[in-house]
């Protein structure tokens, strides 16, 4: 079920607990292999809790969670991709949690469909798990951005699409992974798991059509 109202701001310790828990949940599903992926939770209108870089996300402790100012450069020790999290908090006031995963399926499908610039997901019951989608009789378009080590340049491309797509709850980076967000940690997690399932379905569909 979707919460009608955005969740209230979290304390650092609440946010850190949510981040540690979601790390375990996503790690056992192999969505964040090795030390990949990063997670964040909004604290208030100006700050967010973000994960430390270089740590296995299934073995996070609360001390691996750092505080970032969403309008400033990311804190020392955080991932180079932290600006992509902070951007979502600036541009989506309702976003309370952002999850970035490096699953096989998100890397593979985004790489295969990079030239198309998006993946279209249609007529699948689980579409109702995404944002405000109320029916499976629809097409959800997830943008695919080219992978780029120049994070500010990548962020500019994301900004342009976020401005045009109020419905967006996720995007893919080609050959790299998924960014998904939600109005609380549970919703961000549901979007991540639902998209993973939908991407798996799309790949299976391609195999059957061959
Ligand atoms: Zn990444």
Low-confidence spans: pLDDT under 50, at least 5 residues? 1-5
Query: How many separate domains make up the residues?
Result: 1
Shape: globular
Mean pLDDT: 91
> Can you tell me the CATH topology?
L-fuculose-1-phosphate Aldolase
Q: Cα distance, first to last residue?
A: 37 Å
How much of the sequence is in beta strands? 15-25%
Q: Major β-sheet, in short?
A: 8 strands, mixed
Named once each, the bound ligands are: zinc ion
SSE-based structural type:
alpha+beta
The top-level CATH class is Alpha Beta
Write down the secondary-structure element order: HEEEHEHEEHEEH
Main-sheet strand order equals 3-2-1-4-8-7-6-5
Please identify, by name, the CATH architecture. Answer: 3-Layer(aba) Sandwich
| Proportion of helical residues | 25-40%
Using only C-alpha atoms, the radius of gyration works out to 16 Å
- How would you name the CATH homologous superfamily? Class II aldolase/adducin N-terminal domain
* Assembly state of the chains shown: single chain
The number of helical segments is: 5
Description:
The structure is a single chain. This protein is α+β, with helices and mostly antiparallel strands. Helix content is 36%, strand content 20%. It has an eight-stranded mixed β-sheet with strand order 3-2-1-4-8-7-6-5, sandwiched between helices. α2 (82-91) runs parallel beside α4. It is globular and about 50 Å long. The termini are far apart.
Descriptive terms for the model:
210 residues; globular; eight-stranded mixed β-sheet; 20% strand; alpha+beta; L-fuculose-1-phosphate Aldolase; 5 helices; single chain; binds zinc ion; 8 strands
């Amino acid at each position: 079920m979707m919460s009608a109202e955005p969740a209230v701001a979290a304390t650092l310790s609440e946010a850190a607990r949510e981040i540690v828990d979601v790390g375990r949940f996503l790690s056992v599903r192999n969505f964040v292999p090795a030390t990949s992926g990063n997670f964040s939770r909004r604290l208030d209108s100006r700050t967010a809790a973000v994960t430390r870089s270089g740590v296995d996300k299934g073995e996070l402790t609360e001390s691996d969670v750092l505080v970032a100012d969403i309008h400033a450069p990311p804190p020392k020790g955080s991932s180079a991709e932290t600006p992509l999290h902070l951007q979502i908090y600036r541009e989506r006031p309702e976003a309370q949690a952002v999850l970035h995963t490096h699953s096989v399926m998100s890397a593979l499908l985004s790489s295969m469909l990079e030239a198309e610039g998006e993946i279209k997901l249609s007529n699948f019951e689980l579409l109702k798990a995404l944002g405000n989608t109320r029916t499976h009789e629809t097409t959800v378009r997830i943008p695919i951005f080219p992978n780029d080590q120049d994070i500010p340049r990548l962020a500019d491309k994301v900004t342009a699409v976020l401005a045009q797509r109020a419905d967006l709850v996720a995007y893919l980076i080609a050959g790299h992974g998924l960014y998904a967000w939600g109005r609380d940690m549970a919703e961000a997690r549901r979007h991540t798991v639902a998209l993973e399932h939908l991407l798996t379905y799309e790949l299976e569909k391609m195999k059957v059509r061959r």
